Amino acid sequence: MTEKAMSRSSLRIAATVAALAFVVSAWADDHAKVIGANSEAIQWGPCPAFFPDTCRIGVLHGNPAEPRADIFFKVPANTDLVAHTHTSAERMVLVSGRMRVDYEGQDPAVIETGSYAYGPPGRAHSARCLDAGECVLFIAFNEPIDAMPVEEQSMDAPE
Description:
The protein is an alpha+beta fold. The chain is 19% helix and 35% strand.
């Protein structure tokens, strides 16, 4: 990816994090809480621009621009998510649907509802929400939330 493209991508990601910031005040305190994936209390915001328009993020706890934020990530069935990376590791639980995840250098894996998945920081990956209904993924990040698109060639490049 060119430096100019990376800069545009970084700006889009910053805009997405800023768009999610309005949600933070509702969840930034230290009170115990229980939030279901269908809760009306969740304010869904946009995903980074390189993901489909139907992709949504709901902040559950923390500030997405700071370490230790938790989110719900939601996409409709039969939705592809392009290859991307994150600065942070991702700790995930699939709340609904079935999702195929393809991590660079590994065989594809299918995450079933209720299953845990771990994504290492910096590892390129793509995904597809399969035809078992909408996919809602709980994701806990160690670092501020980011997502950078990866050129398709790098996912297939020999090691």
